[in-house]
Amino acid sequence: VLAVGASPLLTRYNIDGKILSQIQCAPQSAFSVSLHPSG
């Protein structure tokens, strides 16, 4: 699962690039990119 966040949404994609979810995140200046192994 790839999660990419830039204000005001955190968007999660699967490995095919399909959007899994879009989550509103509180800190508007937050930016994060994280890779989570599936399984």
Written overview of the protein:
- The chain has one domain.
- 0% of the residues lie in helices and 54% in strands.
- It has no helices and 4 strands.
- Strands 3-2-1-4 form a 4-stranded antiparallel β-sheet, with no helix packed on it.
- The chain starts with a strand and ends with a strand.
Write a brief structural summary:
By secondary structure, the chain is an all-beta fold. It has no helices and four strands.
Topology readout:
Blueprint: E1 2-6, E2 9-13, E3 19-24, E4 31-35
Antiparallel strand pairs: 1-2, 1-4, 2-3
Q: What percentage of the residues does DSSP assign to strands (E)?
A: over 45%
Tally of contiguous helical segments = 0
Radius of gyration: 10 Å
Instruction: Tell me the strand order in the biggest sheet.
Output: 3-2-1-4
> What is the number of E strands?
4
Shape label:
globular
Largest sheet: 4 strands, antiparallel
Indicate the mean pLDDT: 65
Class computed from helices, strands and strand pairing: mainly beta
Report low-confidence residues grouped into runs of 5 or more: none
Domain count: the total is 1
Distance between the termini: 10 Å
What is the percent of helical residues?
under 10%
Along the chain, the helix and strand elements come as EEEE
